[in-house]
Amino acid sequence: MAVNLxxxxxxxxxxxxxxxxxWAEAGIRKANRKDVLVVRVAEGSTVAGVFTRNRFCAAPxxxxxxxxxAGKGIRALVVNTGNANAGTGQLGLANARAxxxxxxxxxGITTDQVLPFSTGVILEQLPVDxxxxxxxxxxxxxxxxxxxxxxxxxxTTDTQPKAASRTVQIDGKTVTLSGISKGAGMIRPNMATMLxxxxxxxxxxxxxxxxxxxxxxDHSFNSITIDGDTSTNDSFVLIATxxxxxxxxxxxxxxxxxxxxxxxxxxxxxxxxxxxxxGEGATKLMTIRVExxxxxxxxxxxxxxxxxxxxxxxxxxxxxxxxxxxxxxxGYAGVDDLDVDRVNLWLDDVWVARDGGRNPDYLEEDGxxxxxxxxITVRIAxxxxxxxxxxxxxxxxxxxxxxxxxYRS
Amino acid sequence: MAVNLxxxxxxxxxxxxxxxxxWAEAGIRKANRKDVLVVRVAEGSTVAGVFTRNRFCAAPxxxxxxxxxAGKGIRALVVNTGNANAGTGQLGLANARAxxxxxxxxxGITTDQVLPFSTGVILEQLPVDxxxxxxxxxxxxxxxxxxxxxxxxxxTTDTQPKAASRTVQIDGKTVTLSGISKGAGMIRPNMATMLxxxxxxxxxxxxxxxxxxxxxxDHSFNSITIDGDTSTNDSFVLIATxxxxxxxxxxxxxxxxxxxxxxxxxxxxxxxxxxxxxGEGATKLMTIRVExxxxxxxxxxxxxxxxxxxxxxxxxxxxxxxxxxxxxxxGYAGVDDLDVDRVNLWLDDVWVARDGGRNPDYLEEDGxxxxxxxxITVRIAxxxxxxxxxxxxxxxxxxxxxxxxxYRS
Lengths: 409, 409
Hints:
Distance between the termini of chain A: 20 Å
Number of helices of chain A: 11
Helix content of chain A: 25-40%
Strand content of chain A: 15-25%
Number of domains of chain A: 2
Number of strands of chain A: 15
Order of helices and strands of chain A: EEEHEHEHHEEEHEHEHHHEEEHEEH
Oligomer: homodimer
């Protein structure tokens, strides 16, 4: 059911010097399924991440924050699917640490050089023995050209692996970026998404890398929603191995910084949009663009109100231009001094609402034509300022209900 | 599909002296269907209302506010279904006023003694000629014992009419209250719901009646949600005809005030819960009770996050005790200093999460047993104060998607 989401081809995914990826089948929740990923990172790399703001953040998220703060230089990531290790208390925390201990011992590094990630069912304990038992197999098959298999190994309700690459010229050197992501439900990231990883062979100082990952997250994973449910495990990590030979980027300005920032952001957007295209039960990709706001915050507030409205989402599923539902969502979004008489609404190129009411020139058949498309832009002009924001979402279909009513069975 | 919602019986709905209700078939949207209601109110009655906070409030809501503010004494209400007269600009406002003009002329009262209400599709102009043409028929069949037919005449996607009565002793007099409501989708009232009307023959001073309607709304219609979509047309009106002979209630304190307040609130809760029981596609009624909060606002914030989570709602639909989804919603509700280690969760009598993690004594089969019930209480204890709040909601089923993907066809 994914919306315009072709299967990634392994030959289009570029190795990033200094990064090796290996998977295993640990039987965390189901047998015969890639469910463990180990990412080895060369010595001297910098790594930065952003994580969920859900107060019930998962045990591995807490450990990631600690290990990044330790500043010993991250050398490995370990990811499991099938179990989120969230709502698991002190035992969950101990299990996340035990996973890092085991991987560190096998790789001859220290525990705080490992970042752990988990995704899957909440409120159940991680089967840490099965996970640890699978680590040798994942280490053994770690290779630089394993990006597609890595994307497959972090899937849960995803119908397709999500991976992409690009290159950018910096200081006359070709810098490579590759990334993977996963997620199809419980998607309304707040600071990051349910697992996104990007690696580059650029050389980037730690504080600059942190600025880069935040910028990219805000313009990609933090601008998508499927069901409004912010996960307990959202994590987005950026790895810079420095193997491209390009000069170290030391400051958050200048041509090299901007080139890398734009490339990382574009790749993150592509990976984030892949999540929406593969949203649970999705049949349509909607781009909700709000412009003419007083500030970005109110534009995002309105865009999310529209993107989360079950009535808007089901109307898109039905290809029904029942567009009053969009105005209703704009009206209840919580912008208390909104003058609705200045609000205009377009569906792609079709001007639907003009100065707060139905555009006299709007024809139902024009709305119908756009609503039948697989990708639709909803543009809302508020007429009260210069700020703007864009959010990507998908429709709400019968399959969304089926997938989430059956998820654990 | 309604959850434990027996069809109201006409003989159980008590006439309220001073109120007559008449319906008609105007063909607003569909033929051969009760879609207009006229309520005549005796001279000397007091009337108070609360209305939607949606910025795109409908034309009739604006006119209601004006006419109540005029203070001439409301003598009639006119309600149509099939068209919300929202997002309709100046023409919509003119149509709402024209409806009041026509009814006032026929009843020999003034325009500002009429309150208009509309519900149905947004962004389409009201067929005011058909509505006005049907008024004589509605006036002709107005009777005190028409409460059931009145409830039928305001239905949209409701599967059943919603009406209830009760009596209360005040000053040794029997005071009667009867009410009707409608709504099954676009339900997350903010100050009131998509049409609720209660009449009583108590005698109540205007400012006291306004306090009563606000109190009742906060504890009933403002504590329910089906899909989180706040309607453009929410209206809840309380009528006091003074025909019971009980003394006038002049102040918001004392035994008579408290007796009437409790009776109005209980009746409003019953009518509000009827809306949730008949929620679009509903198979379950969930009571979300949050206690131990610092203030009521944060309790409501968390209760609504749980009640709106599509993942929580689909898990209830599936009778799947996938209860980590509830903790995730508590965590992302936006209470930034929430200490999750103090959070406890019960499903009816089953203690699921203890001190932020899975209760070691929790058995999946106990959760499963409760989840199979048609009515379930989710109790969340925050452990940070004495405040509490309760919200009622329903599950998210395949039928919700079907109903809203097909609504206009």
